[in-house]
Design brief:
By secondary structure, the protein is an alpha+beta fold. It folds into 2 domains: 93 residues, Serine Threonine Protein Phosphatase 5, Tetratricopeptide repeat; 192 residues, q2cbj1_9rhob like domain (Jelly Rolls), CATH 2.60.120. The protein is built from 11 helices and 16 strands. The chain has an 8-stranded antiparallel beta sheet with strand order 1-2-13-9-16-7-6-3, covered by helices on one side. A hairpin with a 4-residue loop joins strand 11 and strand 12. It is globular, with a radius of gyration of 20 Å.
């Protein structure tokens, strides 16, 4: 999409190229290379899906599973995911298999796409698993087997070729910037890269935390090679920094951090809380939740933490920050 101008995509879509229509819709949906126009973007993507474009159907499924532009419609999302799988979209097919197998995992590798779609139990996916309390204040919880390994493998596969240098908040501008204290890589799981399965995971997080999708930032997959690290830092936004004032006014404080360990075939790589003398690393599919604020909602300096470097192997994490206010 980066190599195609909006004008080129417009001409191709007008000539009946539904793949181009889906890519054009994504431009308008995200405001990438074109003025943001979500309604037009969704219309183009859904038209491409109806016309038999597999990528358009996959994007339409993702849009239906989000609450970014309208309330999530999970049945429509699964129907579009089925449509994409029937059209030959590989990520859609593997997502259907994983969802049909359920949150406990297991085998569902058949390619009877309609049978798999009918077997999906969303209530099971959206049920809150029981966390284990590690510390009350600041609150730290561990959730074992939060997602099955197949989910972890699927998430890694979606981003492996899309990684870029990770960034931190820039207190001078309120934006983001590269910094020597953070040397790992990352990829946002947005409407283009995330897929329905990402938003099922977010709904599972919402069930556990009691915080809805609208309170969540864009999730990320984080990747650490041996020696790569995220030095000691806080996840909350410092209210004393003027650059964060507007951000805090609109979305509120970043109250919680939720991490899912996507693999465990590495050494080192602990999440380290130096003030608390706590280090943690989970097995594949385990999750770690910790608060960034105290009981009154104020930034808690005891939540300082670091992503320590792996000594051997590569570490993959799913990272989800949760805000005080919903975007809706």
């Amino acid at each position: 999409m980066q190599h195609e101008s909006v004008e080129t995509l417009e001409r191709a879509a007008m000539s009946g190229d539904w793949g181009a229509a889906a890519r054009l819709g994504l431009c308008y949906l995200t405001g990438t290379g074109a003025p943001a126009d979500p309604l037009r973007g969704i219309a183009l993507i859904e038209q491409a899906a109806r016309s038999g474009d597999a990528h358009g159907a996959y994007l339409a499924a993702t849009i239906a599973s989000t609450s970014f532009w309208r309330p999530a419609n999970w049945q429509a999302a699964l129907d579009q995911l089925l449509h994409a799988a029937e059209l030959g979209h590989d990520a859609a097919g593997s997502a259907l298999q994983i969802l049909a197998a359920g949150p406990a995992g297991g085998q569902a590798e058949a390619t009877d796409w309609r049978g798999l779609r009918e077997h999906i139990d969303l209530d099971a996916w959206f049920a809150a698993p029981e966390p284990r309390l590690v510390r009350e204040t600041p609150r730290i919880q561990v959730i074992e087997n939060f997602v099955p390994p197949a989910v972890c493998e699927w998430l890694i596969a979606q981003v492996r070729d899309r990684l870029a240098r990770a960034t931190i908040y820039d207190k001078a501008t309120g934006g983001t910037t590269e910094d020597g204290r953070r040397t790992n890589s990352q990829c946002d799981l947005n409407v283009e890269t995330g897929g329905v399965l990402t938003f099922v995971v977010r709904a599972r997080i919402a069930a556990l935390t009691g915080r809805q999708d609208g309170a969540m930032e864009v999730p990320k997959v984080l990747h650490y090679r041996p020696g790569e690290t995220f030095a000691e830092h806080f996840d909350y936004l410092n209210p004393d920094e003027p650059a964060y004032a507007r951000e805090l006014e609109v979305r509120g404080q970043r109250t919680d951090t939720f991490l899912i360990y996507l693999n465990d075939d590495f050494s080192g790589g602990e999440t380290r809380f130096p003030e608390l003398d706590i280090s943690h690393v989970g097995a594949t599919g385990d999750a770690l939740r910790f608060s960034n604020v105290d009981a009154e909602g104020r930034p808690d300096k005891e939540t300082r933490h670091a992503g320590l470097p792996p000594t051997t192997g590569e570490k993959w994490l799913f990272s989800q920050w949760i805000r005080e206010f919903s975007r809706n």
